[in-house]
Amino acid sequence: MVPPVLEVDDLNTTYQRRVVLDAIDLSVDGPALVAIVGPNGAGKSTFLKSILGLVPCTGSVRVLGQPIDSVRRRIGYVPQRESVDWDFPVSVGDVALMGTYGRLGWFRRPGAAERRVAQECLSRVGLDGLEDRQIGRLSGGQQQRTFLARALAQQADVYFMDEPMAGVDASTQAVIFDLLDELRDAGKTVFVVHHDLRTVASRFDRVVMLNRRLIAAGPMAEVFTTENLQQTYDSQFVTLDEAIACSATTR
Amino acid sequence: MGLTVWTIVIGTTAAAACSLVGCYLVLRRLSLLGDAISHAVLPGLVAAFLITGRVGGWPAVLGALIVGVLTSVLADIVHRRTGVPEDAGLGVVFTSLFALGVVLLGLADGTDLDPGCVLYGLIELAPLDTAPVFGLEVPRTLLTLVPVLLITIGLFVLFWKEVQLTAFDPAHAVAAGIHAGLIHHAVLALTAGVIVASFEAVGSILVVAMLVVPPVTAGLITRRLHHLMPMAVFFATTAATGGTLLATWWNTSVAGMMAVVAGVQLGCLLAVSSVILGERQSRGERGVSPGR
C-alpha cells in the first residue's frame, strides 16, 4: 500500500508560550494540489515550517511514509519572498543552482549536469536570459519565479510553497498555476499556502482549512463549503461568495 | 628581512583572514557580532593563559574558539527562549562574558597579561619576537596567523556550497537537508579563532575594522558572492600594506593607519559609485542601490 504523502498526528506548535497550532491531525494522499487557507495569523506558514522541522513542535509528522529527516532530498520548499535579503550578492542563475545543492551532499561541487538542470528550471518559469542578473534587480514576480526555479531544481516529489502568489503580477500568477498543474500531472504533490479564495476551488484538488486548529481538510467539493469557511474565518462572512469577494480585496 | 616587510606580512595575513570571515558576517547582517566576539573571548584567553602560562599562540586560539561558540550559542538561546531581540541577546551574553574575563584577569594578578595589550595589540613590536623556521627567524605571531588564514581559506573552499546556502537562505537550506545551524556556528567559531590570532598582532580595533570595512567596500563593486571574498581580501591586504608604509613614513600608529586606509578606500569607492549612479539616473536608467 502506498503511504499518504503527508501524515500529521497531534502536531502542536507554541511560540513564546502562545499556542500557534493546536493538535493538528491530517492525512493527505497524492498526487494532488493542496491549498492551505485560513485568516492572517492562523498558523499557515508555521504549519509548513513545523512539517519541515524549521520550528520546534511536538507530535509526529511523516512525509511519504517516513520521518522528514530521511526524505529531505525528495522535498522542495518555497519560503515567503520576504524571508531573504534580496540585496544578497547572487545572480538568478546562482539561486536556481542552489536548488541542486541538497542532492549533492557534502564536498561535491555542482558540475555541468547541475548547471543544465538549473538552466532548464529557469526556462520553465520563463526567466531565460536573466541568469546573470543580481536578484535585487528583479520585479517581485520575477523574484518569486526565481524561488520556484530553485524549488524545481530540487527535483522533489513533494513541494511546500508559502504564499507563492503573494504580490505577484497576473502573468506570474498564470505561470505559477501552469507549473502547479504540470507538477501534479507528473505525479507530484504540492502544498500551497494561498490567500485568494477566488482561485482555490477552480485551481486546487484538495483544501486544508486552518485557524490554529484544523477546521476541515479533504477533497475540494466536499470540504470547501460556506459552513467551513465561516468557521475558518470566525464567521466574518455569511456566504461563500462574500468570503471569496473579501479575500480578493485583502490581498 | 626588514622590520617594515615583516610588519606588512603580519598585517596582510591578519587583514586577509579577518576580511574573509567578515564577508559572512556582513552578509548575515551580523557585522557587530565580530565586535561582540572580540570582547567575549577574553575569558577564553585568560583561561588559556592560566592553564598554559603563555600569552597568545595556539592555546589562546583554542580558548577563543570555545568561548566564541559559547557566545553565539548562548545568544541564540537567550533570543529563542525569552523572545528578546537577537542583538539584545548578544549584548547580554558578550558583556557578561567580557566581565567574567576581567574578573578572571584580576584573580590571575601579577601576570603580564594586560587587557590593554590584548585589546590594542602592538603590531610595531610583533616582528621583534621571532622564532626560527627552517633557519629563518620568523615573527612568532605568524606561526599562528598563517595556519589560521590557510585553515580559513580551506574551510570556505571545502564548504562553499553550504556557506553560500546558509548565508543566503538558512530556512531553505535546513529544509533541503543542509545543516545550516552547524555551518553558522562553525563560521562564528572560525571568526573567534581569526579574531584572537589577529588580536595580539594587530589589536582589536583593527580587527573589527578589517572584519567589516573591506567586505562592505567589495560589496560596492561586485554583486557575486564568489567575487566578493577575493575582492574583500584585495582591499584588506592593500589597506594593510599601504597603512604600514604611510605609518612608517609619517611615524604614526601602524594599526590605526591601516584602518584609516581601509576607510579611505571605502570613501573613494562610495564617491565614485555615487557619481556613476548619478550619471545613470540623469540618463534615465534604472538606478542600482549602492548598498550590498
Note the topology.
The complex is a heterodimer of chains A (251) and B (292).
Chain A (H helix, E strand, L loop, with lengths): L5 E10 L2 E11 L4 E5 L6 H8 L6 E6 L2 E2 L7 E4 L13 H7 L2 H4 L7 H13 L15 H14 L4 E5 L7 H16 L3 E5 L3 H7 L2 E6 L1 E7 H4 L2 H7 L7 H11 L1
Parallel strand pairs in A: 3-8, 3-9, 6-7, 7-8
Antiparallel strand pairs in A: 1-2, 1-4, 4-5, 9-10
Chain B lengths: L2 H25 L5 H8 L1 H11 L4 H26 L3 H22 L7 H6 L9 E4 L2 E4 L2 H17 L1 H9 L1 H6 L4 H23 L1 H18 L3 H26 L3 H29 L10
Antiparallel strand pairs in B: 1-2
Walk me through this protein's architecture.
The complex is a heterodimer of chains A (251) and B (292). Chain A is of the alpha/beta class. Chain A is built from ten helices and ten strands. In chain A, strands 6-7-8-3-9-10 form a six-stranded mixed sheet, sandwiched between helices. In chain A, a hairpin with a 2-residue loop joins strand 4 and strand 5. In chain A, helix 2 crosses helix 4 and helix 2 runs parallel beside helix 5. Chain B is an all-alpha fold and 292 residues long. Chain B has one domain: ABC transporter involved in vitamin B12 uptake, BtuC, CATH 1.10.3470.10. Chain B starts with a helix and ends in a 10-residue tail after the last helix.
